[in-house]
Amino acid sequence: MLQKPDPAQEQHLLRDGYWDRTAIIKASDGSLRVRKISKGSDSAGPWGRDNLRAEARYLTNLEEPLVDFFPTLIQHWDGASTGYDMAYMEGYVDVGQVARNQLFSQAQADAMQRYLGSRLLQQVHVSSDSTPCLVANIKSTFNKALGCLQAHPQLHCLVHSISVNGLPVNTLEQQLSNIFSGALLPRMNASPQVRLHGDLFLENMLLPAVDPGVNWPQLLVLIDPISVAGIGTGHPLFDLGKYESYATGELPAMRQERLRLEGFEESTNNLQPGQYRWAIDWQDNALAGFKNINWHNQLRQLYVQHYGPIDRAMYELLQAYYAAAMVVCTTGKEQQARTLKMRSSLQLALT
């Protein structure tokens, strides 16, 4: 393994993430690559370097049938910084852009989901004998979120008994006590473990930016495996839940704060203290691609056909977990909405 990356010039920043930077670079031989590198002290969370190591291992160990479904790994280094270079997919864009710019018809979006489902469920989701680690990470993440909120000067009130969109929720400590002592987490640990993608959402999928004339939806390539907390194996519902959190429009709306929030201002109409509401602002034209095209129904149908009915309590617990992971590293309206999402999903998991 290399101690440092090959010398290169950054050509274009693709993503300045919470934990790492992804950019198109020009190598010394003139070739273009995509470089993903840790941010060091600029990181917004603790997971960056371990996560990049896990991503590189994941790409290194892909079986032959999956080689065309991920970019080629060129090099991996681990020294003063950690990261890897992968092949540059010229002319490709992430599917989040395809959705936002409404480049696909509903039929094309359906075809993409069916292709994704066939490859994900039959080739990526193979049985894993790795020691289950998701439950331990879920507990740790919720405890971090609790500590973050308890210390927050404005949001500490959200750890108490509140109402979210009309749903009464217990104190956060009581919710977590019930989750940690209940049957849901042992059931998750006892379920068959599979290899996951781990960070399966539309921005981690690539397609040609222009219709090549044939099989456009089937030219899909996945990037950036492994969740932000290093999860690469676990219950298969993890991937579906992560995918739907973005494909429904919820994650883009939260990131861009295209939201309607009530309860945080003293003058909020029709709400009593301790009552909160949040919703996606579907009147915002930036979300039209998710409003007009269904990016999730086909994949869900394939998941149910393959695995059987969805465990609703487990699904809600995972939605709460995704939100909790971001509570600790976001601010403003996004942090408010993530917290409310976490609180209501935890309550639904317990119902």
Distance between the termini: 49 Å
* Order of strands in the sheet with most strands: 1-2-3-5-4
Largest sheet: 5 strands, antiparallel
Q: And the CATH topology of the largest domain? A: Aminoglycoside 3'-phosphotransferase, Chain: A, domain 2
Specify the structural class: alpha+beta
Q: Count of helices?
A: 12
Characteristics of this structure?
351 residues; Aminoglycoside 3'-phosphotransferase, Chain: A, domain 2; 14 strands; alpha+beta; Phosphorylase Kinase, domain 1; 4-stranded mixed β-sheet; 5-stranded antiparallel β-sheet
Describe the structure in brief.
This protein is 40% helix and 19% strand. The protein contains 12 helices and 14 strands.
Q: How would you characterize the overall build of this protein?
A:
It is built from twelve helices and 14 strands. With 351 residues, it is α+β, with helices and mostly antiparallel strands. The protein folds into two domains: 8-87, Phosphorylase Kinase, domain 1, CATH 3.30.200.20; 92-350, Alpha-Beta Complex (Aminoglycoside 3'-phosphotransferase, Chain: A, domain 2), CATH 3.90.1200. A hairpin with a 3-residue loop joins strand 1 (8-16) and strand 2. Helix 3 (106-124) runs parallel beside helix 10 (297-307) and helix 11 runs antiparallel to helix 12 (332-350). The longest helix has 19 residues, at 106-124. The model has no long low-confidence stretch (mean pLDDT 94).
